[in-house]
Write a structure and sequence with these properties.
The protein contains 15 helices and 9 strands. The protein has helices at 3-17, 21-34, 39-51, 55-68, 73-88, 92-105, 110-118, 131-140, 145-151, 156-164, 185-188, 202-211, 222-227, 249-258, 289-299, and strands at 172-177, 192-199, 216-219, 233-238, 259-272, 277-279, 285-288, 301-314, 317-328. Strand 6 and strand 7 (285-288) form a beta hairpin.
Length: 330
Amino acid sequence: MTSDIENLLFLALAEHRAGRKSHAEALYRDILKAEPRNASAHNLLGAILMERGENIPALSHLRKAAMNAPDFEAAQTNFGSLLYTLSKRGEDRLAREEARSWAKRQPKNSIAQHWAAALGAGSKVQGAMPEALVRKAFDGFAGKFDEKLAKLGYQVPKLIASALSSHVRPPLDILDAGCGTGLMAMHLKPWARSLAGVDLSPAMIEQARARGLYDALETAELVAYLQARLQAFDLIAAADVFCYLGDLAPVLAASKTSLRGGGLLAFTVEAAEGGDFTLGQSGRYAHSETYVRSCLEAAGFTLLSLQQDIARHEDGQPVGCFVVVAGERR
């Protein structure tokens, strides 16, 4: 990239961040006239078009960004987001064809493979959503997260707190795993001697920090975080977190080692009717009751309660979940 292009891109980004998106768009187009394969300009122009609902024009730019720069995380995540948007808005065949082509051209790209599997384009279902997708999604709407969930009738923190109420013996050292903006913390704090939170999204961590309820907050991948904290907690709560994991064995094993004797693990999963776990069009996973029970058994937990309920509503339809409380095997 020449210094002139770099300077122009810097100016375009400044306009973009200042909300002057029409100016930024014109600059991105100028960059692409001079340098047609510039992945940053394609990605950012595509993002502006997608935000305006111009999904087909956005597709051309985001496709080029993703294909020209397979290691460019923002381009990969934005392209995947657009394919999901297309699939939700009646362009499912187009989204599937694009995902199939993407995955074929980039067989080692976990983001491409994940969306190809989610959109029914033939790729094998992976054991977890790629970290970059989770981080990008939650960084993107951290500021409006609570408002968005309220509109969806989100009930998971209340469901977990209710399921735990007959099992907890405070005061406890508690981990809010995948804490998000801290909605679960309001229910956990009354039981806490100490309350820690961990999340992949730095923007979510900052929202959680603003609540003033946590004694410690950290941006980290959950399994690695747990593995580094042996017998550190009396209670681990994961509200609407395991839907980003297909294979539950690693996180359950790590949770077991991070809990003290007599410790409790409480979590939700989206409910699947059969099999082990399924990957939905949304990119999230759902788990069967049989699979949850077998994974808990294998990890050395005793199941204390498992209830089926409604986590929230999406597109006017209820999203079923299992609310699970488990403890050390007796």
